[in-house]
Amino acid sequence: MLTAISDTHGTDDHRLTGRTLDAVHEADHVLHAGDFMTEGVLDAIDAECAKLTGVVGNNDRPAVQDRLPDVATVSWEGLTIVIVHGHEHTETALGMLARQENADIVVVGHSHNPTLTDFGGWTLVNPGSYADPRRYQPAHAELDVVAGDVRVRLRSPDGTPISTTTVER
């Protein structure tokens, strides 16, 4: 399983609770789409993960910016996944990035709005913010292989399913 989270907006701990914490522990790989805020939060999240790939968000302090890239690409279960915070990307720019990286999935944060969108060739996954949802519901994303394809599910920290889509492999 792969778990995607974003927009922690913490100062000293990971703020992971409930199903979100369980999903981070169960995942072979965790993706974080930026806005850890501090190096302490980055380290706290990293300590909970088997493997973490994160990117810089627009609110990350210099110590975090020094450790993370603006864009990361990972291969998982035969898919190419690009991670970016999104504060510098319009929908058009994300589409161009997906084509440039030959991505099947683009994981993006920034808006705090948990969203799954199929763009006919690639899928946008915004896991929302599990810790600082603002006007949206708190969420994270879980990706797993079901019947040969990848199921992407948005869930709330209490485990309630929010939305699901399937990405063909």
Automatic annotation (TrEMBL):
Q: What is this protein called?
A: Phosphoesterase
Domain Calcineurin-like phosphoesterase per the UniProt entry, residue ranges: 3-139
Keywords for the protein's UniProt record, in alphabetical order: Metal-binding
Which source organism?
A: Haloarcula terrestris
GO terms (molecular function) for this protein are: hydrolase activity; metal ion binding
- Say yes or no: keyword Metal-binding present: yes
Listed EC numbers: 3.1.4.-
Family of the protein in this entry: Belongs to the metallophosphoesterase superfamily. YfcE family.
Organism ancestry:
Archaea, Methanobacteriati, Methanobacteriota, Stenosarchaea group, Halobacteria
Which prosthetic group or cofactor does it need?
A: a divalent metal cation
